[in-house]
Amino acid sequence: MSTNSNTNLSSNTIKFNSKRIIDMTVGDPMKNILKFALPLFLSNLLMQFYNLTDIAIVGNALGDDALSAVGAVSTIYSLFISLCFGMSNGFSIVIAKHFGACDYKKMRKAVGNTILIFVVWGVLIKVVSLLTLKPLMHALNTPPELFDEAYGYISIILSFMIFSFAYNVQAGIMRALGNSKDPLLFLMVSTVTNVGLDLLFVYVFKWGIRGAALATGLSFVLAAVFAFVFIVKKVPELRLSRSDFKVDKNLMIDLFTSGLSFAMMFTIVNLGTLILQSAINGFGKTIIAAHTTARKVSELCMMPLSTLATTLATFSGQNHGAGKHLRVWKGIKKSLLLSYGVIIIMIFIIYFFGRSIVTGLSGSESSKLISTAVLYLKFDLPFYFVLAILLFTRSSLQGLGSKIVPLVASIMELVLKIATVGFLAKHYGYWGIIVCEPISWILCSIFNVIAFFMNHNIRNAMREAKLSKKSKIKLSSADTNESLSD
To answer: What is the pTM of this model?
Structure first.
């Protein structure tokens, strides 16, 4: 692709700015993956900083009860945002496929149709989330003494959710084209704003956890608006004409089913977590706060894996469009080697410094809270070697256009979490919660690995590679024999 940034919207040819766009169908797979993953990792780090800021400020400024109120409803937000985040991920896979196939006319139309779906889906999810909030909180056994504070916090967060969706859609579109740098800029500004508003609303204005929620919501607005203005002014490749917004039935179906597959997968996973939370809420405020803190640390530890998984989804999508399926397998192998090195480092950090990390994050002096959170982390972290396999194969399958297999694996995970609440948590207490995810990771990864190697695109690519290798060996052998006879 040319480095010229001019865009010819009337044809199927676009000259891209190579400083922003990465074509993952050519060049060394690992180099492409790292170039894309580093800005994405920093973006994910900032997103975690978003969440950790709320937890740290709430825990240190308002105490364990406020921290428990946030933790008691955090899975509700995760459930609804997964419906939005999943859709945006599914959209980006379809866009990446057409980009990889160099069908830029179809790519622009996919972007236009994505925006149409976003408007309808975003409004629908916002209305449903606010209408079902109190029934969900009751179903989660939210402690009565935490209910009002927790409701005030989560209702504000959900009111601003459409702006978070808007940001994720715009970031997903840009990442589909291999651009993970500019979304990082949007989050940098938004995160600084979030921290400043958190301190202002909680410490100065004394607005409690509602102030923390408002700070996060306003930061969502800033991220979405900044992304829109930046794309309009600085990314000519994504300037659309009126015809790009015309509904394309087949394309709309592809976008919606791809997005819905992702959304349902994330929702099923989060629904399982929601079910687990109902059991955790029955263990009392100390365990709720401990689990909330431990989950925030574990999400931070998972970030390198989730970053590489998201990268592999785009990598697989582009190479699927280009018909280069063997590159997908090569990308997975190199990503696994990299992730295993990172996991070893994280295990060392948690085993030697986990207690200090939990204490600093929670702001608590409760020995039970701290020891419970550390126990969760020390048990789960070694199973990240399995989690990496699960995430990488699942993301790659999604990039290859598989919509059923990842959904089935997610349903398996949901069933296991329901079993945990029904049996393990009842008989073994919090230990039942701790062992749940490692068990589900092992079983789901086995299923995903089998499905990956049974994928017809991967099988055909590997068969062709073997035939090519045999041909080269025969040619080499023939050349050797000819040389000896001479």
So the answer is: 0.79
